[in-house]
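S.,

Sequence below, as promised.
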Amino acid sequence: MASSDGFNPEPEFTHGRAARTAILYCNLGTPDEPTAPAVRRYLAQFLGDRRVVEIPRIVWLPLLYGVILPLRAGKSAAKYASIWEPEGSPLRIWTEKQAKLLQGWLAVRGHDAPVRFAMRYGQPSIASQLDALKAEGATRILILQAYPQYAGSTTASVIDAVSQWTQTTRNVPELRFVNRYHDDRGYLQALAQRVERHWQANGTGHLLMSFHGVPERTLHLGDPYHCECLKTARMLAEWLRLEPSQYTVTFQSRFGKAKWLEPYTEPTLQALAAKGVDRVDVICPGFTSDCLETLEEIAMEGRDAFLAAGGKTFHYVSCLNDDPAWIAALGGIAEKHMAGWPTKVPADTAALARSREAAMLRGAAR
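The prediction came back faster than expected:
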């Protein structure tokens, strides 16, 4: 809690402690449980973000709290319940596992860089995890996001949350942000191998790449998300040696009545079935962890739509999750962006001890 001067208390400082680099791995978020009250709290935070819904507050907030949340919370809770695991939300499970595996991968390569995960909406919050990293002695923090493609509604919103934290922090660590890796070789290779393994085990079908949608107006206002999604899709198709007729790119999760990026996923699935495409294999390259949008919207609702329209076989190719190739790609991205920062265990511990001794001789308590 901030003190009367507006800043949170600083953790106790100890002289002679080596500078330490840390990573905060951020994902979108999830309700604490699949119940209407928990989903309402989550959606209020999510849909109340001006980055997510770019409607004037005076118009949007009464609509959000008076109509949308009362109507949507219960329906969304039922959807979450359909994919909930005994350990909790799939998105939280995978995000936490990715953070642990990333720290392990870095440790094997000689890096002493603690990794914590945080959620933009829900728990653990970005602010609480930044506080924890500071308390552990982190003086340099890399903000690594789970979003391969940059979007104002996701990537920039995380930057907003970090910036809000700095406004109540007296001693702000050095910060770096990974804004995108939509064309990173390791990420694309992990995606391609995921598809190839699926095809080796199940045969091949028409590949549909479904990305999360955003309002079309954001494209015209300068958001690069649409272009980065198409580049990811093109490069993945090239890696898989696909002809244009063998794959389709779509956008899902439309919300509201405004025009969003097209083509939309579910109508495209129905159109493919109507054209005689018997089998589709759907992958969601913009999601690095399976979640509501992949497990319920695609693997359940998308399947039903395709089969009801006359399709014969529907396969969902799971997200990268804890795939070793993906963890290695994530590690490579982190290494590149931490370049020049101290991440190795300091060899000259004697110099640190001398520094501490000198400070204490001058009256330092610790």
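The chain has 13 helices and eight strands.

Coffee later?
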